[in-house]
Amino acid sequence: MPLEHHYPALIIAILFGFAFLSPVIYKYTRKASVPVFITALSLTIFMALAMLFRIYADGPFTYHMGGWAPPWGVEFRIDLLRVFMLLIILGISSWIIVYAVKDLEHELKHNLIGWYYSLYALLVGSMAGMAMTNDFFNLFVLMEICAISACAIISIKEDRACLEASFKYLILSAMGTGCFLLGVAMLYMVTGHLNFAFVSEALPQAFELYPNNLFSASALFIVAFGTKAALFPLHVWLPDAHASAPSPSSAMLSGLVIKIYAFSLFVIFYQVFPRDLLDSLPLNQIILWLSVLGIMFGSIFAMVQVDLKKMLAYSSIGQIGYVFLGFGLDHNMAIIGGLYHILVHAIMKSMLFMTAGVIIYSTGVRRIKDLNGVGHVLPLTMVAFTIGSASMIGIPGTGGLISKWYLALGALETGQPFFVVIILASSLLNAIYYMPIIVNAFMQQDEFQIKAKPVPRSMTATLVVGMVAVIFFGVVSRPIIVLLEQAIQFLL
Amino acid sequence: MDESTATAVLLFIILFPIVMTAVIMYVGDKSEKLRNALAMATSAVIFLLTISLYPLVVGGNIIQVTLFEILPNLEISIRLDLLSFSLAALASFIWFLCTVYSLDYMAAEHGGSRYYPVLTFTLGSCIGIFLAGDFFTLFVFFELMSLIAYILVVHEETEEALKAGYKYLVMTIIGGLALFFGIILIFEIGGTVSLGVGTIVTETSTLALIAFICFLIGFGMKAGMFPLHVWLPDAHPVAPSPASALLSGIMLKTGAYGLYRVVFSIYSLEVIKAGRWDIILGVLAVITILLGSAVALTQDDIKRRLAYSSIGQMGYVLLGLSILNSNAITGSMFHIFSHAFMKSCLFLAAGAIIWKTGKRKISEMGGIGRQMPFTMACFSIAALAMIGIPPLNGFLSKWTLGLGALDANITFYALVLLVSSLLNALYYLPIIVPAFFEIPGEEKHDNAGLQLNDATPRMLAPLIILAICTILFGLMPGNLPFELSRLTSAFLLGGGQF
Q1: Domain residue spans in chain B?
Q2: CA dist A335 to A52, A255, A490, B410, Å?
């Protein structure tokens, strides 16, 4: 088989391979490790793009690890939806790593940086795998890798808050994985398969014979993925974990890690489970109402925060609610909105965490109250913050508006204008907690007395890329919407 | 001029100020003179180019061009018809005058390198609102303008300005979200939000009503309609005077323009009348008129009094829109013109007084007419026009509006117009009369306040031009704005035909 057929496996192999090599590279040639990592990531992006073009040429395809065919072998499925997610993961993580180089020197002990890159590569590799995998067992293994490496990139900072937060995260995440395993066992009991395609084939019959198994399996999945994706009320671990972690980790966790779990739940519910199951249980309704509560409470909690990163973390709880809202509304438009929000939120929230990171790097300020006047010291950073916030609020011209537009259309199509009101109310709440920060940062110029360290060029560059991306995806959204429309055609 | 040239001109008109913003910002650090000249030139160029489209527009041509699709069925497009032309021409004219006025006014103030780029950008987005070809584009420019104008509002950076600005910002965002909801509802009902399709909603329904209310909130908030006017009396007075003149003279009109488009392009007259939604608008307009005028009476700060007066005057525009017959629409359209001339003149005059003497309180302004005769003369002419004294333009708009009300057999509205004129007289005359006839320091025999010490020529010139406009566009023959209003009214009521 030609090399390009092995791309799915190669993507994961490259990333995991780098994870093993990174400490060694770092130990001997400190300077080389970042370029090597970025090369590795660009290589994977190239492969993902090649797969995208192959899908356009030949349609979706599957890849069997080692040539072993399912139901026994390990299978990856590559279709538009998976590639969309894969590209987001790879793209955003290569963007964050450029930022991380300087930030880590500031936040971590130097001998740990090589290990940080290992963990980062593991995290990216496992997420890429989760996006592509086509069986439950693999999903489970990759989820574990993802959870552990995510915990580790929080606790690597080794201060009290980080350790406490990552421990909390570890426990809750283990609980989530436990629930997932139980759910998989329930499915395995009634179908005898782990491969998505086989399970999905066997399920309609199994559903008639053993409905209770499937009911409990779906409940377990909601809890499992809900915990990991911080769906209200299972979000309790998120604010501490995301706020205390080093800024690149926060960007990664809020931007990507919670999304991949939401994405997996979407794949399981819509690609694996039979439609009858979704219709016979109010699963969508449950997700829908939990997401509404998440959207409202995330924003309300964010309003009362005094720590900038904590506020951003609470805002993520609200924003992941939008993604689930799209899935819960169960209408094409809304699902497109939810998927688009995965992309947009990944960009804007990563960028916001980066700006928070730059502020901490340059001035050491974390408290929102102390940010008054910072716009005169760090103008570009605060402009980036402004654009990110504008997108959070949904100001036209930014990506945030497009996902809200589709979510709202979906809500109207299903005849539930109430959810549009929720979207609008939460936009207003976003405005109420983001706007004062911006206004005070630019207006009260005399109040900021701390001398700022110069911001490294790599950090500035990443922020500029982020600003451009937020506006780009707000203006040129059509190609991606068209891609998503094709990607979710299996729903029709 | 053929269609493709016109399209290019339109695009240029929208994009030029936005490009110039960057240039002015860049130049601003190097040379103040060049910066000011560029800002002035930009608004002049825009005005001249807009005027050059006049022959095209009075010929009854409509230009509607889709630039690109941002989402399936949702496009960015531009449109030129009589209504857009009238407002764009008016806006760029007033903008030019205010920029000229700013040259001296802002010279003494801080933050000029922020003021001029923002002023220019606001011009671009404001023209963008008027030339938008669909509601989505309009919404984009509307939000841009509203958010950027915040910087003008808080220019002074005082505690008071920041507080007013925050109120403005929150209200703007609420309005923006309401608009978003309205637009998305219309998109859901009709599958398009283009202005080029005539009527999008053809029958009344609950959703259509909700959308109408959302538009009322979004655009009405900007137009200072009761009960959403609360931000206006705080935000307009705290801005620098030329910016106040633009906020009251032009940016309020974007709200009215939005409502015009909502009434005529989204719904049809039949739908509005069948749902009796015109009554909602009418009632709100009457309250707005009376409330604005009544509260203006109690204000001692001259700019606050003018701001409340703006609320009342926007009520006239909305009232005309709610009556929905030929005369009323003509009157309402013409009042958009008149009010822009009168209120910019008043704010600029008030600005000149504050700039020269530092007096903001009306009670302290006795005898100011002897010190600043030209400024006060312009102020008086504009104030008399506000009251509706013939042959000034304010009289003509009230007369036409009154005719419209009587045509529709609603004598009550005509009565409201009379009462409000009386109120206008009650709060404007006490400014003018003491200004000329009271002699300050009479007891102390101190003549310091009596010396002729008027504003600079560059500040007086825009004032005098505006004052001449209020006379010229009153009962004089060849009244171009009135002609345009009549044509626009016929154009809109005829469903886009003459």
Answers
A1: 293-498
A2: 21, 19, 12, 51
pLDDT (0 to 100) of residue B72: 77
| Assigned token pair, A89 | 């993961």
Task: Report d(CA A245, CA A236) in Å as an integer.
Answer: 16
Report the amino acid identity of residue A413. Answer: E
Backbone angles phi, psi at B495, to 5 degrees: 65, 40
Residue A449 lies in a domain: yes
Q: Is residue A396 part of a domain?
A: yes
The 10s digit of each residue's pLDDT in A55-71 is 888 888 888 888 888 77
Judge whether B184 is closer than 8 Å to chain A, CB to CB: yes
Residue-level pLDDT at B498: 53
The tally of domains found in chain A comes to 1
**CB-CB contact of A384 with A463 (8 Å):** yes
DSSP character at residue B265:
I
Q: Dump pLDDT digits (tens) for A261-293.
A: 999 999 988 888 888 777 788 888 888 999 999
Asked if B67 is an interface residue toward chain A (Cβ–Cβ < 8 A), one would say no
Q: Identify which of A254, A242, A292, A300 has the alpha carbon closest to the alpha carbon of residue A433.
A: A300
Q: Is residue A18 part of a domain?
A: no
* Within a domain: A442: yes
Enter the ipTM: 0.81
Locate B114 and state its tokens.
């922020």
Task: Classify residue B287 by burial, with Cβ atoms within 10 Å: 0-12, 13-18, 19+.
Answer: middle
Residue A180 structure tokens: 């997932």
- Location of structure tokens 């399970």: A199
Taking the model in full, what pTM does it have?
Answer: 0.88
Q: At B60, list the tokens.
A: 């009854």
User: Which among A420, A477, A482 is the nearest to B70, CB-wise?
Assistant: A477
Q: Is the pLDDT of residue A318 over 70?
A: yes
Q: State the CB neighbour count (10 A cutoff) for residue B279.
A: 12
Smallest Cα–Cα separation from A84: which of A65, A60, A100, A119?
A60
Task: List the domain range (segments joined by +) for residue A362.
Answer: 282-492
Cβ distance B181 to A420 less than 8 Å, yes or no, reads: yes
The contact set of A with B (CB < 8 A) is 393-397, 401-402, 404-406, 408-409, 412-413, 417, 420-421, 424, 427-428, 431-432, 435-436, 439, 443, 475-478, 481-482
